[in-house]
Amino acid sequence: MRPHVAVVKRLIDVAGSLAGITLTLPLAIPISAAIALDSPGPVFFVQRRAGRLIEEDGKPPRWDEFNMVKFRTMRVDAEKGTGAVVAKKGDPRVTRVGRFLRGTRLDELPQFWNVLKGDMSLVGPRPERPELLINLAMAIPFFEERTRGIKPGLTGLAQISLGYTGAPDDGSEVAKLKATLTNPFGIEEAEGALADDMRIKLMFDLAYAAALEHFWSYLRMELRILLQTPIVMLMSRGH
After folding, report:
1. Contact residues for 53 (Cβ-Cβ < 8 A; gap 6+)
2. Distance (Å) of CA 60 to CA 14, 140, 141, 144
3. pTM summary value
4. pLDDT at position 67, please?
5. Dihedral through CA 236, CA 24, CA 52, CA 14, nearest 10?
């Protein structure tokens, strides 16, 4: 990322996260009450996530890690007996209130704090869990490039263009190409693989990363994503 892009991006992050915390704070009480009434367990969910991919001389590449905060949308015992697994469309582990929060992206609001701290950016690729990221990087070529020197984001090009899990909307141009993008050789055993949606998300993440190489392309992309994010939330896409 160019130094002047990095400076402007951080300024936007600080100003945007402070405004976001101030404007959304009144929503915290009804959301917390709804979560508590819907299912037993804590209101907030803290999970370890991978951040930027960092390369240091003489050392293998590694990802920064941080604790990401969300409103809880799943049962407390969601991964009991399975370990870490990627959420999927219609996931039975998601609570009733959780489905609404995910569809409107309101579950992500506590991450304004992560942005203010500098763990995340307002805009960028979604942060993945470290224990899943290794397998995804081995299964999907160039998957690790999405966060090379780029902080993960609260929202992003993939988030405003795709559903919550990364699946393309029915009827979209990307959906028409899904079979070619995810299973070009038509292997029956590979149909519906867990990494399919991640391959599609990767295209959008790499497009965003490319925009960071030129200031005006970055600024246009950043503002477009920030302006479209509330629209996506109001449309309740991505259950």
Report:
1. 61, 62, 63, 144, 145, 147, 148, 149
2. 31, 19, 18, 13
3. 0.82
4. 95
5. 140
